[in-house]
Prior knowledge:
Blueprint: H1 3-37, H2 59-62, H3 73-117, H4 122-138
Amino acid sequence: MKPLIWLSMTLCGAVLVFYWLGSAVMEIIGLYTQALADPMADPAATMNAPNAAGGDASTAASGGAASGSGQSSEQQISGNVFRYAIWGLGGAVLFTVGVKGLTMSAFRRRRRNDSARAGESVLEAELAAARARRDAGRDP
């Protein structure tokens, strides 16, 4: 693959990791900010997380857990954090594959440049290395 593809994989992976792990951290910060704002409040009654329908479900007005799910805000936030971390892990895989591809292409380019400076092709350099290994194995 071309280095441009490896670079785009690396950048996309980094963006995914930073976005999703940042979202997870923001969920945790929101939970603790809410706890610091009103330490004596019931966590299920003060939850301000989006519900499954995608709207802003302030459950203080509905008097309980969001949309009848029966979960406290800590349980819902821990589920969200876990989901965000899994998405971030997918970005980490893309990032790792991209970095590995960039590294391999850089090594190939360096080997090609070294053999070109020596005045021989890559194939000739490979053949010479194979002959040297073969000859080294024959001598006692």
